[in-house]
Amino acid sequence: MPGPDPDTILVHYSEIALKLGHREQFEGRLLANMRSALEGLPVGEVNAVYGRMLVRLGDADADTVVRRLSVVPGVANLLVCVACEATMDALENTVSAMAEGWKPAGSFRVQVKRGDKRFPLESPEVASRLGALLKAASGAGVNLRNADETVFVEITHAGAFVSLRKVDTCGGLPVTTGGRVLVLLSGGIDSPVAGLRMLRRGCRIDAIHFHSVPYLNDASIDKARQLAAVIARGQMPLNLALVAFGDVQSEIVRFVPRPLRVVLYRRMMMRIACKVATRFGAGALVTGESLGQVASQTLPNLGVIESAATMPVLRPLVGMDKLEISRYAQKWGTYEISIVPDQDCCTLFVPKHPATAAKANEVAAAESLIDVARLVEQALAATEFEKIAADWSA
Fold it and tell me: Is domain 180-388 annotated with CATH 3.40.109.10?
């Protein structure tokens, strides 16, 4: 809509409203996370006001602010607004100024929320009066049920806000309210999506990446850093552990029968990841496993692999198919990174016909042929640790 430039972002949340006795704590965390996401931008005040968050744009670009807030877990949707006093005269003046030259793409409606019950007019009367102004200015038709465009008006204790742009965003719960987890981050499509979905459940994310340098090139490490930088957009900087896993795989190949090698690789990853998770203060591991997607992800194999872990293993994608996962990755910005060809540890020393129903006694017998504790400590000693900041350039 032409007229005054937007000056405020009005942020709504959903799940937080259900937290009753803990609502204030969740609001405070969401507010802190929003401020963190907007760090470095010339925004004005960022405050909580009566069940909403207000971001005064200041000199910041509205689209840039929207992009950053859209990936902050806990933000359900936002309105890009022009603010005015909470009076009918001020609302009519603001809407009239915004309507100059406005030509909606078809019909429109006015949707009013009157959060401040001290306002003398009921919502339907406000909508009717503002709608009449817009109809007179534009000549557009009104359709209250299936309008092509909606003009949003909110009347709050902090003032009134008019918007034509509503953006559905991340949703979920604010990061850190759900605890801390460690994501086993490969260079593929699935594991970063698993991390993003756990962000929405309020989890603070750290990541671990297993690579096979110098047996393979370091392309997977670069991808892991890029994917971690996308995940970090929704939270504070992310801790990334880079584990050289090729020597572990090499020793397993020397002693273990081919069909069980993949299962043993995964069990060793679980052991190493649990040690790193403890170092970071994480309470669970997160994987991108989806039931039946590959040989190691059958129900029997998942059980045998998980038994090597000393903490819970969360699988947020376990019931999703590849198409669903890929769509989510495209939506949140990891897909294009994930599909770049690379050589990760999953391609090294992989048998042609891996076991799909490994038995615990067979796995135990195979692991007795290698020095598990030594290999774990050897891998940990060679692990590199990095702190990955959010990358907003893409």
Answer: no
Domain boundaries for CATH 3.30.2130.30 within the chain: 8-168
* Per-residue pLDDT tens digits for 255-271: 988 889 999 999 999 99
- 270 CB neighbour count, 10 Å cutoff: 20
> CATH topology for 8-168?
VC0802-like (3.30.2130)
Q: Which residues in 159-304 belong to E strands, given as ranges?
A: 159-168, 180-184, 204-211, 238-244, 284-286
Strands (DSSP E) contained in the chain are 8-12, 46-49, 52-56, 77-84, 108-114, 149-156, 159-168, 180-184, 204-211, 238-244, 284-286, 313-314, 384-388
How far apart (Å, rounded) are the C-alpha atoms in residues 275 and 311? 10
Q: How far apart are CA 101 and CA 155, in angstroms?
A: 25
Taking the model in full, what pTM does it have? Answer: 0.89
| Every domain range in the chain assigned CATH 3.40.50.620 | 180-388
Name 71's bridge partners. Answer: none
Fill in the amino acid letter for 197. Answer: R
